[in-house]
Amino acid sequence: MASIFRSEEMSLRQLFLQVEAAYCCVAELGELGLVQFRDLNVNVNSFQRKFVNEVRRCESLERILRFLENEMEDNVEVIKGEKYPETPLPREMIDMETVLEKLEAELLEANQNQQTLKQNFLELTELKHLLKKTQDFFEVRDDFFSEDTSGLLELRSTPAAAAAKLGFTAGVIKRERMIPFERLLWRACRGNIYLRYTEMDTPMEDPVTREEVKKNVFIIFYQGEQLKQKIKKICDGFRATVYPCPESATERREMLDGVNTRIEDLNTVITQTESHRQRLLHEAAANLWAWGIKVKKIKAIYHILNCCNIDVTQQCVIAEIWFPVADADRIKRALHQGMERSGSTIAPILTAIHTKMAPPTFNRTNKFTAGFQNIVDAYGVGNYREMNPAPYTIITFPFLFAVMFGDCGHGAVMLGFALWMVINEKSLLAQKSTNEIWNTFFSGRYLILLMGIFSMYTGFIYNDCFSKSFNFFGSSWHIIPMFKNNTWNKDVLLENTVLQLNPATPGVYSGNPYPFGIDPIWNVATNKLTFLNSYKMKMSVVIGIVNPVAAAFIPEMIFIISLFGYLVFMIIFKWCRFDVYSSQSAPSILIHFINMFLFNYGDTSNAPLYVHQKEVQSFLVIFALIAVPWMLLIKPFILRANHQKAQRMVRDVDQLGGIQYCKDKFNFGDIFVHQAIHTIEYCLGCISNTASYLRLWALSLAHAQLSEVLWTMVMHNGLSSSGWAGLIAIFIIFAAFAVLTVAILLVMEGLSAFLHALRLHWVEFQNKFYVGAGYKFSPFSFNHIINGTAEE
């Protein structure tokens, strides 16, 4: 029977399914999400399994769906349903393949046509700009033979060059390639060319990448066929597009008119093509989400079927499944529904299997307890039916965090943030954010909620709110009686920087302590830190001993209670025994605890706490020493006696001709050494673990000091300002104070306290009883697969 303190009782069964009903039965189990399938084909290659072709078909469909999703990523919104569609039957997969493949082919054809049209549009647009710009180039042709074309002038002076015709090449090139293009032309042609270029007014869209590209129009004048070939090769090398350009202005104008007409016609065709493409995408968007869910379900089913065996007759699918015993009836109903859906008349058969395999660990959780269970599982998944620390962690984790973080103000801010996440959890879940940091915070919203509540509680205990104290009930200490009795006066105040209240003076101390938490007068006392350090240090020791004791075994409890439990007793006894009137005569607990181990009771400077203290302490030390051999010897000898008893029973059965049993190996020496290591580790751990809890005091002190520094250095300055300047400054200073408070005290200090609380639970608390060497129950669940939370 399951409980919150132990994992669910699990059962391993062999499942026999008719081949025709296997798909539908597995689908129903996936909807239920309570069955873990064992892989019975571990030694079979993934490409040699029975349903590998079906898995490949699903992967092909997923590729098509990813292609469609990428195509509609910017312009088309995918319509999502309120609930997941039902698992399709195998024959529906064929129809889905036909529709998706046809849609992919049409969309690819539309994309190809659109790309070709846009490429033509790009070339015509470039030609249009080139024809316009070359007209400007030819208008300054009279300046062609200028000072920059001395090489051409030299050629023109020769008889052969005079007979040659002057040619030109015009084209378009990317703007960033223009400078190296010009430099190479000049060097390769030895300055015997004339290059003119200008920038295009508007950027062009690349039809392949759909990115804007800035280009230049150029024209190169040259003389001779050899230069023409060099220029052509250089243009090809720089991927410049060369266009034919007529020499006469009339021909250029006629060509420009023709280009403009073709551009207009091409715009019409491109618009129609894009409209057809958008229509295809909108048709796909209506079903894309449902298709994706169906393909994931089909693929998951065939993946599970690949983990099963098929008998020699090819008529029966055999699977082995783990499931919680408490859900056996639900699983049987799901199998029956799968059988009915498939139209089969042969009911699935579940057969119990006796095995020595360790079952998986399954702890039922809800949205509240899931975060705390994850903290435990992060250390290690518990062994099967092992004590689960998560129920204790629900209280102890936020409490230990709050001991280190305790501040009413900071706790209230944390509580407000957690309440916002809890109240709006449905809308926040619907957003399905992919931000890992946000998802971490949101998953632990109930943990943060309790951390905020406990931080406010410990803040009231410490009487600390942004480093200031509340005075709800009135302080138990009063200053006025010190003046009325003439103990203090003006001269005393001037002569002393620090004064001490005397509780013996009538009226100074009311006789009753502050009803709840620390008296607010300590907030203004100069020895505040000394008092709080002593208080928090002793409190940390008390918590550090009480917390691990609850998880110890009898001899371990005797050992830790006899020594460190007694230390807790002395702390509490001293708190109750000595009040403000007798505190000066209170003995030192530290000296008493050291003398307890040394059996030294002759120190007259340190008075005993109570009568017969010597006898009690001596008895406890001896009792603790007795517990050590108890821990060391009892368990190995009991195991040895049990093994010998089992061996005698096996021998008796053998003599009677019974079944031969497998004899387990038993090594008494190994068990004894292991128990000795455990005993030494526990005895030393009692000291180190108790000391480790002093981090509660250290982090609480650090948090309080940082809070006080932040208030003194920032907020105090704003509150002490006056006038209109102070009114304006308070808003700016408060904003800075709020930002620093959130960044340093809530985020940084909160993370530090969280990690230390984690350490205290994983090391100091759980190592007393928790092994954490199991493996997690990973059921076959469509919800986990679709949401991406399936276990590997």
From TrEMBL:
GO cellular component assignments: plasma membrane; vacuolar proton-transporting V-type ATPase, V0 domain
Pfam family, one: V_ATPase_I
Membrane topology of the entry: Multi-pass membrane protein
Gene Ontology MF terms in the entry: ATPase binding; proton-transporting ATPase activity, rotational mechanism
Annotated InterPro entries: V-ATPase_116kDa_su, V-type_ATPase_116kDa_su_euka
Keyword annotations from UniProtKB, A to Z: Coiled coil, Hydrogen ion transport, Ion transport, Membrane, Transmembrane, Transmembrane helix, Transport
Coiled-coil segments: 51-120
GO biological process terms held by the UniProt record: vacuolar acidification
TM spans (from-to): 397-423, 444-462, 541-573, 580-599, 619-639, 696-714, 726-748
Subcellular location(s) of the protein: Membrane
Family classification: Belongs to the V-ATPase 116 kDa subunit family.
Function (record text): Essential component of the vacuolar proton pump (V-ATPase), a multimeric enzyme that catalyzes the translocation of protons across the membranes. Required for assembly and activity of the V-ATPase.
PANTHER family listed in its UniProt record: V-TYPE PROTON ATPASE 116 KDA SUBUNIT A 4, VACUOLAR PROTON ATPASES
Stated name of the protein: V-type proton ATPase subunit a
